Amino acid sequence: MHNVAHMQRRVGMNVKLCATIKADAYGHGVAYIAELLREAGVQWACVYSLEEAMELAQLPWFGILVLSPLVIAEGGELSVDEREALRGQVRVNVTDKESAIRLAKALEVAGFEVPVKVHVQVDAGLTRVGVEPWAVEELVEVIAGLKQLELEGVFAHFSHGDVPKHDTVSEQLKVLHSVADPLRKRYPRLMVHLQNSGGAWHLEDPSLDLVRIGIALYGLQPSTSDPVEGLLPIARITAPILTIHHRPAGTGVGYGHTFVTKRPSRLAVVPVGYADGYPRAMSNRSVAQLHGRDVPVVGRVSMDQIVLDITDAPTARVGDTVTVISWDAAKPNSLDAMADAVGTIGYELATHFGGRLRRAIVE
Predict the structure, then answer these.
(1) What is the pLDDT of residues 45-56, one digit of tens each?
(2) Residue 171 shares a structural domain with residue 247
(3) Which among 14, 25, 179, 221 is least buried, having the fewest CB atoms inside 10 angstroms?
C-alpha cells in the first residue's frame, strides 16, 4: 500500500507501524484492509474494543492492542470469547489499579498460566482515557505484583497532533517520556508509543518504538488545514444509473422540491443515499463523475437515492457507472472535500459508510 510505505519512510524504517483499524477500518471494511496491511508488512494493529480484536485474531499479527480499557465488574468473569482472544496476540489497555486487579483475578479463575500483556495509557494532556502521570508508578507496581499480567508498553495520545508545531505536542511528548524513560531502566524491552497520523507526520521522534497510524492509511487527511503531502485516498463509491427522466423546465425534484429545473433536463436516479453514508447535507451542493465529466447532485439526498442532472452528458444510459465519491483528492466529491463542505471531517464520513455497500479490492 502506497500510504503505508509513505508513512513508514516519514517515521523512520526502524520504528514499527501500528495500524489503527477500529470502526470497521474507518468504514472501509476491516476484512479487506487487514489482509492488505499484513501483505504490506504491518505487524501491529490497534482497535477500540475486545470484540473488534476477536475479528482480527485469525490473522498472523505480532500484536493487537485494544485501546479501550477492559472494564470488569467486581467478581466478574471473562466470557469464552474473551478468554480465547486473550490467549492470542491481544494486548489490553490498563488505566487503573482496580481494573488491573480484577482482570488478574478473572484470568486466574479462567486458568490462565501465561500472563496477558498489558499496555498502560498515560493521560499526557488529551483529558480522555488514561492514568495521570503521577499515578503511573503506583499502577506499574500493582501490575508487577500480579503474575497474570505482564507490562509490555506505555503510551499516550496527542490532542493536537494534526497541527504542526503546536505547543501541546512537545509538552505531551515530554510528559510521556518523563514517565516512560525511568520505566525503561527497569523494563529494558518496554514499548513506548504515541502519535497519530498527524503527529507522526509533523513530529519526528526516533526514540519511539511504535507509532499508531490511522486516517493516513486510508489516504485521508488528519486535517485539511495542514495536509499530509502525498497521501492517496483508497476508497471510492460507484453505482449504476437506475433510471433516467426527461423533464421540462420548472420541474421540482425530490423531497420538498429543493431543486427546480431551469431548462429541459435529463435526470438520473442513482441508488446511494444517506443510509450508505452519503451525507444528506450534500443536497444540491455536490457532484458525481459520469463519462469523464462532473455532473451535479440535484434535489434532496434521500435514504437510498440521489438524483443527478445529466443534461450535459447526452450519451448516458441506464446502467452506466457513476462515481459518487471519488478517490481523487482534487475532486469536490472526495471525502475530505465533502467533509469540508459540510463542516465535519473525513473520519466521520468514512465511518458512516453503510453495510449495504459492497466492498471490493480494485487493482
Answers:
(1) 999 999 999 888
(2) no
(3) 14
Residue 96's pLDDT band, with cuts at 50, 70 and 90, is very high
Angle 304-23-52 from CA coordinates, rounded to 5°: 130
Catalytic residue among 165, 174, 255, 262: 255
Is 22 assigned a catalytic role? yes
> What secondary structure, in 3-state letters, does 84-151 show?
HHHCCCEEEEECCHHHHHHHHHHHHHCCCCCCEEEEEEECCCCCCCCECHHHHHHHHHHHHCCCCEEE
Q: Determine the pLDDT at residue 205.
A: 83
Q: Are residues 42 and 172 in the same domain?
A: yes
Catalytic (active site) residue 32 = no
- Over residues 228-275, the pLDDT tens digits come to 999 999 999 999 999 999 999 999 999 999 999 999 999 999 999 999
Identified catalytic residue from 22, 26, 274, 331: 22
Helix axes 97-109, 136-144, angle to 10 degrees: 20
CA distances, 283 to each of 107, 280, 347 (Å): 52, 6, 20
Widest pairwise Cα distance in the chain? 79
Chain segment 34-84, per-residue pLDDT in tens: 989 988 999 999 999 999 998 887 777 889 999 999 888 888 889 888 888
Q: What is the full DSSP assignment across 35-66?
A: HHHHHTT--EEEESSHHHHHHHTTS--SEEEE
**C-alpha closest to that of 44 among 91, 93, 10:** 91
272-305 tens-digit pLDDT: 999 999 999 999 999 999 999 999 999 999 999 9
CA distance 153 to 136: 12
Q: How far apart are CA 276 and CA 4, in angstroms?
A: 27
Q: The whole model's pTM is what?
A: 0.93
Q: The CATH number of the domain where 25 resides is what?
A: 3.20.20.10
Q: Which domain holds residue 34?
A: 2-218
Q: What is the pLDDT of residue 87?
A: 84
Under 8 Å between Cβ of 151 and 180: no
